[in-house]
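I have been asked to look over a protein record a colleague put together. Thanks in advance; the entry in question is below.
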Amino acid sequence: MNPNPSVPAQSAQEIFAEVYARLKAMAAHHLAAVGPAARVDPTVLVHELFLRMDAQDGLVFEHPAQFFSYAAQAMRHLLLDLARSHRSQRAGGLWQHVTLTANNETLVLESADQVIALDRALESLAEVDARAARVIELRYFAGLTSERAAEALGISKRTADRDWTFALAFLKSELDG
């Protein structure tokens, strides 16, 4: 049900077309952790995301924040699939150490094993604090700002920031220990 009848719900295809460039930049950011061994262009990753979303008949979003929430989960699963694929290659694949740089705190993923470990850590975080896990998905995988993540979850920016800080500490602890 659309909470704001004056703003019509949009199909995944309509929103996808509007945010294509942003999704492509987001994919490039995440593929930087994989390095050139992934042999996947950001465009290919975004198109795979589109195909997965398009396969869901009648997928409609009441606002763009819902789309980004869905896209964040799909991007996480695509990257996990990519990591598993490369991990299964003989000698661990051809991953390279790449440090991600950004204006905010990020998680540095150096190998397929770390991508898989991040997924496990996110599962553990979701058991402890599901909302904090969603904040990580929205900010890290969908590239949303704190404000947009808060809007998507229906919480205040301050709460989203606290969840982000807690989630980063939790994930770093899980990944380091």
Observations:
- The chain has one domain: 10-176.
- The longest strand covers residues 10-11.
- The chain has seven helices and two strands.
